[in-house]
Design a protein that fits this description.
Number of strands: 37
Number of helices: 19
CATH topology of the largest domain: Immunoglobulin-like
Strand order of the largest sheet: 24-36-35-28-32-31-30
Number of domains: 6
Shape: globular
Radius of gyration: 35 Å
Structural class: alpha+beta
Length: about 775
Amino acid sequence: MSLKEREAGLDNGDLAQNLHASEEVAEDGAEEQEGLANLRTNLQETAFFMPRLRTDAHGLVKINFTLPESMTSWHLLGVAHTADMMVGQLDTIIVAEKELTAELLLPRFLRSGDKATLTATIRNRSEKQQQGKGTLLVSDTETGKALARKTVRFDLAAHADTTLTFPYTGSVEHPTLTVKWVAQGQDYSDGEQRYLPVLPDMQSITETQAFSLNSVGKQSIPLDKLFAHDSKEATGRSLTIEYTRDPKWLAIQTLPSMVSPRCKDALSLAAAFYASSLASNIEQKFPQVAQAIREWNTRDTAALQSPLYKNQELAGVLLQETPWVLESENERERRMRLGTLFDDVAQEDYRMTILNALKNLQDSNGAFAWYPGMKVRTHVTQDIVCQMARLYALTSNEIPMQREMRERGCKFLSQEMVRDVKEMRKNGNTTIGGATMRTLYALALSGYNSQMTDEERQSTKHMLSLLKKQASGMDREERALAAVVLHLYGEDALAKNLMERLHTLINQPDGKHLAYRSDGRTSVSRKTSEHVQLMEAIRMIEPEDTATLDGMREWLIGMKRTQEWENASQTADAVYALMVGCPHYAKEEDRLTLLTASKPRVIRTPTTTLGYVRERMDISALPRTLVIDKKSQGLSYGAVYAQYQTPATCVEAQQEGLSIRRDITGVEHLKTGDRVHVRYTLTAQSDYEFVRLLAPRPAAAEPSAQHSGYEHTGNIGYYKSVHDASTEFFMDQLPKGTHVIEEDWLISRAGTYILPSATLQSLYAPDFQAHTGGTSVEVGQN
């Protein structure tokens, strides 16, 4: 085989020379134009799909179809069944080929400025030698203007093939390229046409600076690091200021109304009844809640939108392009149903329906079965009675059927404790567990102690004596419950001793809360439940410690900032904990002043419950400082978003609440054919939900795993969505701590390619995000 001009230059600036070279080797211009006109263009990957074929009277099926024009192997698969479900299958391979084949092996895309390599092949499948010429033509798809052209001669023996490479530099001035490749031999000819998109080399960047304020007065937020430290490359600048004066109302918007049980089991029914009853009680007990709900339904309806929906602009991604469309709609519907809390008749009918279903699962001895037809279970009864007792203690209101069910359940648990004490004494067991403490808790809250028999009273006394001995050695989760139980049974001194150790545990650098291991094994639901339980312990045992309660309330509000609360009963508990002891809201007007090189810009919060404001402005000068004159009591928070365009290779790393590092093995010495390992190290300073990682690839890289789907690594799970130029990883939850996501690239072509920055962002709270720096990669020919 001989080949002229194997490395054919296709730099766009030398079109006349390329045309001249074409004229030198072209023997017949008419033949060449005819070859370019008869190109294979239908290159779709699915030839046909016929799901409803029927046989004729002889059991035959005739199929007519047109095969796409790709020269490849086609998998023909047929499945048939009879009326009585006898099944047959056809599975064969069809090979489509020509005597002479010209094929293009193009990248999925280019970026403007990429010094890329276009690859083409010629295959001779005939029985004799083929000589001729190959022509590559690159043109602008929209205008049809020829951008580059090269013709080469080939001489191929029978059943031989060759691969040619052509350098080409992409330009955003021509965003879509039409690439044609034609081979003409003395006996046969073939040609193929494909399209090649050219992406811009500019990247849209969002930098954020989040802040929280909890004291009245003027406070300054420096902004000098935004816009990549006022880089000259940062163009198209805009600044968005977002501020929420009283964010506890964002948590109250999650207040469950008519909660539909997930299943018809006893635990789900009890949770739905508990959440709905407590939510209605909150609406009645705290007038400011009712006033806020009326305001949202009339004056400030935008406040009821899910953060996933209203943050699309700041997150830089459409909600429809994520797996969380349904979550956003469900959250919006839950918030819109807040108005039903005022419909007392509908609420009462709804709760009676649930209560009747729950009553049908209670046995004559007071115990509950999990599902209809199952045996009664002590732990199921314990959970339900605890919820009903807690509801009674919080609301001081229940209907006769509800009281009867609770008292019968208490009787069963008390008798179970009598049997447990007898068994413990028989076996010499002196260890008390969390289940026993929950029973003691439920009995005390229900006021059942006055109804106990002597035997039940002695059993309770025995369990309390064991608890007093063991409480100091319990872990922190059980210690709060132990303190509450001891307080309810009059052991105040011991209860306060237990609280001293708990106070030490909740004094964390970032607020008043318990610390958890950063392995992601503790769910958000459990953290919320334990935090609320600890708040209850302080409120009952040390009601004078308002400073600690305020700090714990602020941490709970901050937790809601980055997470959606789905568990109805725990959400109701959390909202109750926020409202108890919290003063009525006031609608003071906080003032935000943006200081720049030009005149200051003043933003005032509206006189609504939330006091939420978001203002976007185009800006040329670097903002210096945001001064906030806070008039309102309690926690307020907000963020400043700097959005701009910059060349992808000039992007600097930035982080706020999240951080990301991208490591590529062997990036300094890449060769075609290499398999490259890419590691993304993600660090979260808090628990986040609905987090998206956008990981671009250079045009020279192909993903080794090209199928999208759900995957799990370490202690996080994510949905991976593979695209031509990037891969997206969608994480429902990103726990506090450090996590690693990995992928492999296959390097397919030589050249110099742009690699934009990888971005990590919470779509629920887009003010928390991070991105790596941008760069370029060099790939040599292997």
